[in-house]
What does this fold into?
Amino acid sequence: MIAKSTDTIAPVEISPISMVSTHGSEFLTLDAEGFLGQWSADLGYRNLFETSVGGNSIAYSSQKRVAAVSGPEGIVLVHVPTGRMIKQVRGKWSATSRWNEDGTVLAVAYGKKLLLFSFEGTPLFTSEDLTSTATDISWLADQTTIAVATYGGVSIIDTSSTAPTLKKEFIGSLLCLAVSPFGDWIVSGNQDASLQVFKVKDSTRLEMQGFQSKVTLAKFDASGLWLANNGAEEVTVWNFAGKGPKGRAPVLLPKQTNGATAISWHPTQKGVVATGDGAGSVRLWDLELGVEGKPLLPRKTFGKVSTQEVRCITWSLAGSQITIAHADGAIYTVKF
Amino acid sequence: MAQDLIPVTVLTGFLGAGKTTLLNRILTENHGMRIAVIENEFGEVGIDDALVLASDEEIFEMNNGCICCTVRGDLIRILGNLIKRRDKFDRIIIETTGMADPAPVAQTFFVDDELKAAFRLDAIITVVDAKHALQHLTEVKEAGVENESVEQIAFADRIILNKMDIASVEEQEAVIAEIKKLNSSVQIFTSINADVDLREVLDIGAFDLQRIMDTDPSFLTDTDHVHDSSISSVGIEIDGDLDIDKLNKWLGVLLGEKGTDIFRSKGILCIAGNEERYCFHAVHMLFNGEFTTPWGDAPRKNRMVFIGRNLDRKDLTESFIKCIIKEKKLAKSKVKATVK
It folds into this structure.
């Protein structure tokens, strides 16, 4: 995979905190104020919608072309082609939302509850109160059960029944959640500079401690073999083959300045991951090329267009191009 | 650089004391500062163009072996979002609920690296109702139940004694005496309708090691008052140079074993072989200290204050004296320790 060109370097009037690929070379960006914008290498940036809930993250349904903006004061659904607001729920912190596989149902972390909406904004489900404000959510493989991270645990909520919530006790404050593609592993990144791993099949638990700072990013690759997380100057990558990472030394990607601020796996290729750091550098790695006992060399180091923190790295849906956004609004796309 | 950090003021006070009145006054005053407010309830701040975020108090224990190490999960989230729009405001005020414990709020700024790199805790300001506070402060709670109003006084760097117009002279004197019992080093400013000079509320630098001496003229004020409340402050003032290893060990053991009961502590110390003052402050077990300005011609004198529950003046003083290097062992008459 060799970059053909660095297409566009386009500072925009926003400082993006979240970005999703819509189609082709088009992306949606969100800043902390709640400005939802459209960006493409060809057309540049335009404001799409100004929410009144602030900005934490975006989720996008490519099938229904609906964007969900989560923010400090709630959730907003916006029809992207028209910029029309479909639904708004205000009043509680929403860290994130996730669409199901066919893009028709949206799961929303809203205060201490999990909410479900149709793409048309119809409320479908409201959970009981969880132990604290939900920090992350993930659909499980059956597409009806959802894992929700809170302080002290992960709640497994079956949205198709009235069965009581099953809570997996984790320690401390959970900041992010990663569920492997087949739903066999649930991993949390924690405020206490640790990673907690739960094997669904036999309830085995692992805890990886000793990171330098809180773990805010933990992500599985498309195959479910590799999980990468931040929490140190190096990105740590764990091998989840077979019985999982227990007893295996992780792969440490060489140090990045001020720690990893963005981690994004290739949407289809196993073990290919892009990482960005606090000083604006972005590197591409291929875990499949790693040799045991030797430091992994980056497959590509991207030209540095900004010294500001890398906020978002987003692959196009097919994985043929990657778009990188910095805190100062510099956004650029690289095609492969 | 400390001056690049965004200052954060924590506003505490019992229900009805006048926190929101003070907050609205701060926001409407013509000071030219852009202030972001984290309030405990939506809609309390009546200023339309203020950047206001609401929080639901969520106290999280840290999994670091320290039983008193709790943080405010809601503040970590909200401040994390504010970091990403830091060009929109110059300072932050956190308004807590009347029942809030100030410790987790303060400790949040000690334990989260991301927040430490972006913010500096300026001071804890407690608004007190001059007429009605005494009944809250002297209220006897069930065993194991904290008296939040007492803790809010104990943690405060400044007290705004509000509603002076409706309190009798006797009530004013009684509440001031009670406040001084709990926290002898706190500065008290009186007000009617929370009308105070904002210079007494903002940019105090109570957690700024460089400014510990400058900003706290009543630091270690000597009083002879002894009382029977479980919460008190102990001041220690003593000549002599300290053995840094013994001091570290002493503070480590002290805060480790009794950190739950020691709400706040701060001090200016003379370390043997160093020309600079060593300043520190701590909230429960979480400690921050560094060498600051040179002593110059000023007399080298160790001064410390501890505020907390069931403090043992004799034990604190005697164990501290053991940290003085033997060559400069002091005559007992030179030691002055006070309980307030």
Remarks:
- Chain B has a mean pLDDT of 83.
